Protein: Caspase recruitment domain-containing protein 19
Organism: Falcunculus frontatus
Amino acid sequence: QSYCHRLQHDMYFLTSTSRLNEQVVDKIVLQLNRVYPQILTNEEAEKFRNPKASLHTRLSDLLKHLQKKGERHCQEFYRALQINAEQLFNDLPSRKILKTPDPTEIDTDKEQYMLNDRGPVFFLACFSVAAGLAVFWYCCNSETQVIGRARRILGFSPIIIGRHVRNICMLYLEDISRN
C-alpha cells in the first residue's frame, strides 16, 4: 500500500478532534520544511502554520497538499509524525492494517519464545551430553592414539561428569585398550 493511499485512509483519523494539537502540527510542518529534500517551501510552511486558520482546516489542507505532491512527500509526513507523535503514529488505522498478521505466516516472536522457553539448565545439559558424546566418539575412533590421554582426562573429571558415567567410560576405555 502506497503512502498516498495510507494518508488518504488515515486522513479522517488525523483530522478528528483532539488527535493532533497545535504544537505537534507546527513541529511536523517545520520538520517538513527543514528536512532534506525540502518537502514544504517557506511560503507553504507559513500557510500551514497560520494561527488565524483553524487547526482542522490547516491539517486537512496540509494532508491534501502532500497527497498532490506525491509518494515521497507522504512518506516524509509519516516519518515526521512518527518522530513527533509516536503514540498517535502507532494508533493509525493504516498501521493496524499493516500489523494484522497473515494467518499463514509464522509468528516469529511466538516461535522464538517456543524455542527458548527451556532455560539455561536445559542448554547446559544438552551441551554437556553433546560434548561427552564427541569426546567419547573421538576416543573410540581406532585411528586415534590418544586413549592414554583420554583416560587421564576422564580420571580427573568427577566434577564434570558423574562418578557412574566416569566409571563406565573408564571401563570402556580399558576394554578398548586391551583389544
